[in-house]
Amino acid sequence: MRTSMWLRLAAGALAPFWLGHTAAIALAPSRGSEEQAVYALMKQYSFDAIGIQRSHWDFYRGYGVFMSVTVLLLIVWLWQLSRIADQYPTVARPLLFSTAVGLLAFAGINAFWFMIPPAICCALAGLLVLAGATRRA
User: Fold this and answer.
1) Which of 10, 26, 67, 116 falls 20 to 30 Å from 102 in CA-CA distance?
2) pLDDT in tens, 97-110
């Protein structure tokens, strides 16, 4: 299988992570009054963050949106890199290895601090990129 196919499969493996994370931000229903109380406290507590007043809610919501954009960027990056990898494998190989390491690190972070489904998406994508990177021409 060509390197481009491995990378496109990796991009596809990240799609459920992106869709699920983005949908959860946009559509997640409230889980009740206790959750709303926690959110209210997060919004109330603000602090100086490098000269700008921010709340824990700002960081919570901002990091969620940031993560969705990051996963979408990775999907686009892998798709674009797939076209380069077949034509210029020597140029692409270091980019593939660093991308694979990053995806495997994301998998570990998700497994430890968040949830198993995004960890599986990231681990699968990382292994697929690694397979493409180690493929012999």
Assistant:
1) 26
2) 999 999 999 999 99
Q: How many angstroms from the chain centroid is the CA of residue 135?
A: 24
Nearest 5°: the CA angle 62, 56, 44 is 125
pTM for this prediction: 0.87
In which band, very low, low, confident or very high, does the pLDDT at 28 lie, cut at 50, 70 and 90?
Answer: confident
Domain boundaries, the chain: 3-29+64-134
Quick one: residue 50, left, alpha or beta (phi over 0 = left, psi -120 to 50 = alpha)? left
- Per DSSP, helices labelled H in the chain are 3-27, 33-44, 56-87, 89-113, 116-134
Looking at residue 101, its amino acid is V
